[in-house]
Design a protein that fits this description.
This protein is an alpha+beta fold and 478 residues long. The protein has 3 domains: 268 residues, Spore Coat Polysaccharide Biosynthesis Protein SpsA, Chain A (Alpha-Beta Complex), CATH 3.90.550; 69 residues, no CATH class; 105 residues, Jelly Rolls (Sandwich), CATH 2.60.120.10. It is 23% helix and 35% strand. It has a 6-stranded antiparallel beta sheet with strand order 18-19-20-27-22-25, with no helix packed on it. The chain has a 5-stranded mixed barrel with strand order 6-9-7-8-12. A hairpin with a 7-residue loop joins strand 7 and strand 8. Helix 3 packs across helix 6. The longest helix has 16 residues.
C-alpha cells in the first residue's frame, strides 16, 4: 500500500467496440463483456483484481448501451461498483477527469488507478507490486503510467522511453518521451535498448494533480467535466453525467492531452503477462495451443491444420490442411483471415456499417435488462423470436402500432398483462396480443422463463415500441 496508507480508487474504463475481434465482438456486446480467455469476461477479470484493503469501491465508466450488462456481470462475481454513464464518447482524457473529480469528492487527496476493462494480466501479483511502486511516485506528484517490458518488436503498440529513477519511489522512472506506433526496424531497436516499454494504457495519479495538469494543458476538458459531474444525476443504480456540458470536452486521449506534455510523467516498468487482446493474432498468442500450434474453441474438428485460431460459437467448424489462419464462426457470421492480416478485420466492420447492415451491431441473441431475445426466423410480415426472461424480471408495459404477437411458453411461468386482463401462462400454454393493445410480460418464478414469440404485421422493427411504464427508465418511445 502507499506509504501514507491512502486507499486507491480503482476506475475501470469500459468503452470501445473491439471491432478487430469481429464477429465475436460487436457494438452491443464488445470484447470486454466476452469470456475470451476463460470462463469469466474480461471486465469481470479486471474488476476481480481490485479487492482487499488496498482499494476503495470500484467505479466503472461506460456508455448507456452496456450499463445493465455490466451491472449484471459485476453482480455475478459479487463486485459492488459505482457505474457512471457517459452520454457520448470523449476518449480517455475526459474519462480520467471524471474519475478524478468523483474520487476527489470521496477523498480530497485521493489516488486514482485508471485501467482499461479489456486487457489480460496473467501475473496479478506483479501488477499489484507495480501498483505499490506507482502509488509512492504518485504521492510525490507524479502521474504514473505502467510500462510493459516488451517481449517482441510489436508495431501495434506505443512505446515509453524511461529515464532517471525517481527518488523515494523504487521501481519508478521519469518518462523521457512517448513514441507512437513504430515501424518494424524501430521496434527492434527499442526492444534491444532495454529502456523502452509498451504503453499499457494504465495510469495512477493523485486526483488533484491530474486535474491541475488538465486545467493547465487542456482547460476545455477540465471545465466541461467539472460542469458535467456537478450537474449529473442518479438514475436507478447509475450516475448519469450531464450531456450538454460533457459534449463540450475535446475528444483526446490522456496520453495526448497530458502525458506527452507534462513534466510529471513517470513510468513503472512491469513484467505481468500483459496483452491488450487487440486482435485475433493477439488472442492466438496468449491462448493454450494443442498439437500443431492450434488454438481451438467450441465445436471444432481439424485435420492437418497448423498454427491457427479456430473458434465456433455456433455450428460445427471443420478445417483441413490449412495453416496460419483465423476462422471464427457465430450464429450469423463467419470470419476467415490470415493471422498476419488480423489487424485488418476492422475494415470489414467499416464496410458492414457503410452498407447499413446489422452484423457489426449485435448478435442474433440480443441482451436486455430483463433477459435476452434471439431471432429464429424472419420473413415477409412475420418474425419468430426466442425470449428468455430472468427470474423476477419484467418487460415494460407497452404497445405496438404495426404488429400483433403470439406468445407460447416452453419453460417456466409467465404473468401476462393484455389490455385490462392479467393472467398466468404455464408451459405449453399460449396467448395472443392484438395490434395496438397495451401488454406486459413478467416472470414471477424462480427459474428463467422461455417462450417463443411470433410477430406478424406490416412493420416489425424494434423501434415500433411505445412504453408506458418501465423498470429501467425507458418510458420514451424506443
Amino acid at each position: 500500500m502507499a506509504s501514507n496508507e491512502k486507499r486507491i480508487h480503482p476506475v475501470i474504463l469500459s468503452g470501445g467496440a473491439g471491432s478487430r475481434l469481429w464477429p465475436l465482438s460487436r457494438r452491443l456486446l464488445p470484447k470486454q463483456l466476452l469470456p475470451l480467455t476463460g470462463a469469466r469476461s474480461l471486465i469481470q477479470e479486471t474488476a476481480s483484481r481490485f479487492t482487499g484493503p488496498t482499494f476503495t469501491r470500484t467505479t466503472v465508466i461506460c456508455n448507456e448501451e452496456h450499463r445493465f450488462l455490466i451491472a449484471e456481470q459485476l453482480r455475478e462475481i459479487a463486485v459492488d461498483a459505482a457505474i457512471v454513464l457517459e452520454p457520448v464518447g470523449r476518449n480517455t482524457a475526459a474519462a480520467a477527469a471524471v474519475a478524478a473529480l468523483i474520487a476527489q469528492k470521496a477523498q480530497p487527496d485521493a489516488l486514482v488507478l485508471l485501467v482499461p476493462s479489456d486487457h489480460v494480466i496473467e501475473r496479478v501479483d506483479a501488477f499489484q507490486a507495480a501498483i505499490e511502486n506507482a502509488a509512492r511516485a504518485a504521492e510525490k506528484g507524479a502521474i504514473v503510467t505502467f510500462g510493459v517490458r516488451p517481449t517482441a518488436p510489436e508495431t501495434g503498440y506505443g512505446y515509453i522511453f524511461g529515464g532517471a529513477p525517481i527518488e523515494g519511489a523504487p521501481g519508478c522512472l521519469k518518462v523521457e518521451r512517448f513514441v507512437e506506433k513504430p515501424d518494424r526496424a524501430q521496434a527492434e531497436r527499442y526492444v534491444a535498448n532495454g529502456n523502452y516499454f509498451w504503453n499499457a494504457g494504465i495510469f495512477l495519479f493523485e486526483a488533484g494533480m491530474l486535474l491541475s495538469e488538465l486545467e493547465r494543458l487542456q482547460p476545455a476538458i477540465a471545465s466541461a467535466c467539472r460542469d458535467s459531474v456537478a450537474k449529473g444525476r442518479r438514475d436507478l443504480d447509475f450516475v448519469r453525467l450531464e450531456e450538454e456540458s460533457f459534449r463540450k470536452a475535446p475528444s483526446l486521449s490522456i496520453d495526448v492531452a497530458v502525458m506527452e506534455h507534462t513534466p510529471k510523467a513517470a513510468v513503472v516498468p512491469v513484467d505481468m503477462g500483459w496483452s491488450d487482446v487487440g486482435s485475433w493474432q493477439a488472442l492466438w498468442d496468449i491462448s493454450e495451443k494443442v498439437d500443431g500450434g492450434n488454438a481451438l474453441k467450441g465445436d471444432v474438428l481439424v485435420e492437418g491444420v497448423r498454427n491457427s485460431y479456430l473458434r465456433s460459437d455456433g455450428p460445427l467448424l471443420a478445417a483441413v490442411g490449412v495453416e496460419d489462419l483465423v476462422v471464427v464462426a457465430t450464429a450469423d457470421a463467419v470470419l476467415v483471415s490470415h493471422r498476419e492480416a488480423a489487424q485488418d478485420v476492422r475494415k470489414i466492420v467499416d464496410e458492414l456499417e457503410r452498407q447499413g447492415r446489422e452484423q457489426h451491431v449485435s448478435h442474433r441473441r440480443v441482451y436486455r435488462p430483463w433477459g435476452s431475445y434471439e431471432g429464429i426466423d424472419l420473413g415477409e410480415r412475420f418474425q419468430v423470436k426466442r425470449i428468455i426472461v430472468n427470474p423476477g424480471a419484467k418487460l415494460s408495459l407497452q404497445m405496438h402500432h404495426h404488429r400483433a404477437e403470439h406468445w407460447i411458453v416452453v419453460a417456466g411461468t409467465a404473468r401476462v398483462t393484455c389490455g385490462e386482463k392479467e393472467f398466468l401462462l404455464h408451459e405449453n400454454e399460449s396467448t395472443f396480443i392484438p395490434l395496438g393493445t397495451r401488454h406486459r410480460l413478467e416472470n414471477p418464478g424462480k427459474v428463467p422463463l422461455h417462450l417463443i414469440e411470433v410477430q406478424s404485421g406490416s412493420y416489425l422493427g424494434e423501434d415500433d415500441i411505445v412504453r408506458f411504464e418501465d423498470s429501467y427508465g425507458r418510458t420514451k418511445k424506443a
